[in-house]
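Late entry, evening session. Most of the bench is empty. Finally got around to the prediction I had been postponing all week. Sequence below, unchanged from the version circulated by S.P.
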Amino acid sequence: MLKGPRSLELITILADLSAYGVTLASGQLAKICLEAYGGSNRAYLNLLRRLEKSGHISVESRSNAGDSAWVPNLTAAGESATRSPSPFAAWESAWDGKWRLLTFDLPSHASNARFELRDWLKTLRFGKLQGSVWISHRALPEVESSFAALRVSADSVVCMEGIFWSCGDDASYVVKAWPLYKIQAAYSDYLSFLDTKIELSRTLTAYQAWRARERSLWDAALKNDPLLPKELWPTKRLGANLALEAEARREDAVRNWLEAAQNW
């Protein structure tokens, strides 16, 4: 697992550049981070070495000139760490028509267990329907496979699978369980950022600063997104799903920046 935002930013640069066949020596990467964030060259070189030990990068020696001359390359684990869930892939996925409902009963003094369980539910993109009742449209095996790692007694949790038989369609439960208006607003902020004019003189350092801001806004929108299939999107209430436009334009924006990569 990656530790710290700088680790993610470093391997994001590597992933972006490798897509265009561009490699940088470790000293070059450290200089870029130094200009963008401050600190010291040595700190960033040490960070690259830690990423090597964690398996996120491999090292290719360019010469005998020392630490600043070796070339870090992204591994499969590093590439995986830079990938975000795809709203479009979720949109096109099939839904089996069943809901997974999880409810829990933990004593008030078990605050750590409550926090851990709620964090786990949010990580799996469950929506809070009411109180301690959470729902998801995903299949149960995805839930069961990670529940065992929690320090929560299985006797305190009940998970059911089925359909809602009370009044209201599926879209009404979606609107109630997830803050979709807030999520739409976050994607709107992201799209506004992409509309911002970019200076013609594009450098790798400028790209790093742009990419850090871009990823921050993207993550802010994506973290609360339930990644719904199209069958569950409440179009009548919210209109088009802005996540789809944001994802498509994100790819174009990064590509436009990286067209200058060979000159870096």
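Two things to note before I forget:
The chain has a mean pLDDT of 82.
The first helix runs from residue 5 to 18.
Will write this up properly tomorrow.
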